[in-house]
Amino acid sequence: MNLVSFSMILTGVMLNAAAQLLMKTGTNAVGYFDFSVANILPVGWKLATEPHIIGAMVCYVFGVVIWILALSRVQVSIAYPLLSMGYIVNAVAAWYLFGESFSPAKVIGVGIIILGVIIISRA
């Protein structure tokens, strides 16, 4: 895999991770809501108009375009597992931004993911 292909995959991963973090920020802004028929329109409208969630959707659109470009250059059996880098980004960012736990088990899991990404990227 060349640098351009890896950069496309990494960009796609980062856009996906950013989308997840923006959605979490957006749902935090909207607050807890019950999943019910009565809430479909009012909560749906709040979510659809929340700026962070709109930003997340924009990240997804660009991420899909970048991902399609990457898949045109890299085998899916190599590219798809590299999406796991998003778990690392999100675990660290969730700890930093939202105060979520970063336990020893998560550190070990991140280490295993990194090892797997290295092995797959060299295939």
Which helices and strands, and how do they pair?
Layout: H1 3-30, H2 40-49, H3 51-71, H4 76-79, H5 85-98, H6 104-121
Q: Outline, from the CA principal axes?
A: globular
Beta-strand level of the residues, as a percent range?
under 5%
Mean pLDDT: 91
Low-confidence stretches: none
- Distance between termini? 8 Å
Report the sheet with the most strands, covering strand number, pairing sense and barrel closure: none
Radius of gyration: 17 Å
- How many independent structural domains? 1
According to DSSP, the number of beta strands is 0
H-E order: HHHHHH
Helical amount: over 70%
Task: Provide a brief overview of the structure.
The chain has 123 residues and is mostly helical. It has helices spanning 3-30, 40-49, 51-71, 76-79, 85-98, 104-121.
Explain this structure:
The protein is mostly helical. It has one domain. It contains 6 helices and no strands. The protein has helices at 3-30, 40-49, 51-71, 76-79, 85-98, 104-121. It is globular. The N and C termini lie close together (8 Å).
Provide key terms for this protein.
single chain, about 120 residues, mainly alpha
